[in-house]
Amino acid sequence: MTRGVALLGSTGSIGTTALRVLDRQRHRFHVAALTAFANGELLGEQAERFSPSFVGCVNNGAGERGSWRTGHECLVEAATRSDVDIVVNAVVGAAGLDATLAALEAGKRVALANKESLVMAGDLAAAAAARGGGEIVPVDSEHSAILQCLAGRRPADVRRIILTASGGPFRDWSPERLAEATVDDALHHPTWQMGRKITVDSATLANKALEVIEAHYLFNLPYDRIDVVVHPQSVVHSLVEFVDGSVLAQMGAPSMELPVLYALTHPERVPDTGVQPFDPVASSPLTFEPVRRDQFPALRLGTEAGTTGGAAPAVFNAANEQAVALFLEGRITFNDIANAIGSALDALGHTPGGTREALLAADSSARRHVRSLFSC
Ligand code: NAD
Ligand code: MG
Questions:
Q1: pTM greater than the 0.70 cutoff
Q2: Best residue for ligand 1 mutational test, from 140, 194, 234, 261 (most atoms within 8 Å of Cβ)
Q3: What residue ranges in 18-169 does DSSP mark as E strands?
Q4: DSSP 3-state assignment of 204?
Q5: For the chain, what percent of residues have pLDDT higher than 70?
Q6: What is the C-alpha to C-alpha distance for residues 46 and 48, in angstroms, rounded to an integer?
Q7: Is there a contact between 248 and 148 (Cβ–Cβ < 8 Å)?
Q8: SS3 call for 8
């Protein structure tokens, strides 16, 4: 029997990648549910092709398709259905939180691309998984790499993990040039094709900060054992250093198809043709360099927020989401993004977390704080 998959955010970059994987793997998985935000046209084509038993469109403006569910609740509905075994959460931003928590509580595997939900509410996610029997398997390529390197190892064997970062489009830009960076500049990622929000996050390194916090929760490691190194080719997806000094890396072409597939099949591996064969010579040279932390303060701010705990990671995440939205609208500069995050954390970084309501209140306050900084 094939396993049922709910794909939340099916019209996005990860969503469409996941459908390519699921199309090739129809003998193992079937698409039981699809949700999107507002792109009813593409969602309709996908529903035609995969015949899910549930379709949800948060803003189904046209309202012609009577059987589709609408409103934000459709994400949780899709994630908790009885014909769903695996929830691929490929929604962008804090909007994915409730579906992650509900799926874990309902005992599902969550193939998690929506790192924001784990960053906001890592402790709540762990509690929901413990109560309901669900589990998170990461889709993020770095965390997928680490999971693959850790297979069969005991936690005590690990000295530290090293997340690789491409460095983004501004890796070697001078501070003067960075101050003038435009939206178009930020959207030109050198190695990955992704949604707009994560592409800007990759340019500020806020994405790497989110990934440090994500790794802390996924692998239960303290922040001083999670390092970041810049690796512009994005071929080494991350590394694990063990207590005997041995280092394992997972490598391959920069494609999200393998991490999506592995999140569906972990701990098994299944034959698939989605990833181009690895050619070490063509991939050469592979280089590594330190992060220019002074130029990209979002990485430090996020790591500090993670260490502080409570609602600080949710404040970091919400301030970043709001600032990135304003940047994409052309209302603030590139450097304003990190400045806004820093200001929000100064004002709200010691807010307690603990409950979904407290975290959502901190999220709203952080967004308000950022808007007020720029009189928006
Ligand atoms: P995207 O913008 O391309 O797609 C986002 C999807 O979420 C769309 O289907 C959209 O309809 C849906 N969506 C947006 N807002 C929503 C809302 N308020 N309610 C319900 N649905 C909503 O983004 P993406 O690049 O596919 O990224 C998705 C997630 O995966 C993000 O958390 C990102 O950080 C993570 N991720 C992406 C990549 C990548 O290669 N794109 C890699 C690693 C992790
Ligand atoms: Mg990543």
A1: yes
A2: 194
A3: 29-36, 54-57, 69-70, 86-89, 109-112, 135-138, 158-165
A4: helix
A5: 99
A6: 5
A7: no
A8: strand
